[in-house]
phosphatidate cytidylyltransferase
Amino acid sequence: MIGSFFGIIGAGHVWVIMMVVVVQTLVYKEVIQLAQVPSREKKLPWYFLVSTNYFLYGESIIYYFKQIVMIDAYFLPLATHHRFISFVLYIIGFVFFVSNLKKGHYKFQFQQFCWTHMTLLLVVCQSHFIINNIFEGMIWFVFPVSLVICNDIFAYICGFFWGRTQLIQLSPKKTVEGFVGGWACTLLFGLLWATLLMQWDYMICPVKDLGASAWSNHTCEPKNPVFKPVPWELAPRIASFIKRMFFVEIHEVYIAPIQLHALVMACFASLIAPFGGFFASGVKRAFKIKVGESWLDIIFVYPSVTYEI
């Protein structure tokens, strides 16, 4: 699974975006099904999903590729009136919803309407931000997801060998020792992984050609300052300690801002992201979903972009 993930990363930005959209759609489908009753209206939530995707992804394409869409005879009218078209699409769905209200089903229909909009907000809008991050540079997608994968692996290893204290009732096998061990390992991995990725233009350059892949020639000047090492002066006590321990005089070190950001993101991936998995466990228990019965289960059980969502 990890090999397939990195294969998609190497194939190019389009394939990564498609993967995010597929995962987003599967999560949306599962969450919507929790509020549905068999044989009731099922088409409306999908209409709103398509309308929302048209608006959000259209905004991204117009912003990042305006030099293309604004000169194309076919795309220019769509780009110029994009927000109006999106508004009309939403109004059509709203009118269709109101015109199909049925006596005796008002409560269910309004519950489904609200559930659909909350799901769009919590799932679709957030995946839209993930895709915007991909446009800004592949590293902003690859690095956070890699941190989650690393944390999941090392939390399991540390919990397997040293786990004694239960962390949370929702997941009885999760231990405090595994949680803390995964955090420490993810901090180290994050620092090293960020240092490696910042050397690769394919990772740090904003997307210019959607057809590009890891084997294409990527250059971007000027590069984002966050990837440029800058000198940091060491405190006198730290410099003195290094001199006594290693017999080397060091008064300043070069650190790129991304390396400091990596530590913060590693803390988030270790201390916050696991609760996405715990949340999924709570959902499965609340709605009596057995392991393997749901895409939600498959997606959350294994480390993936869904932790981002």
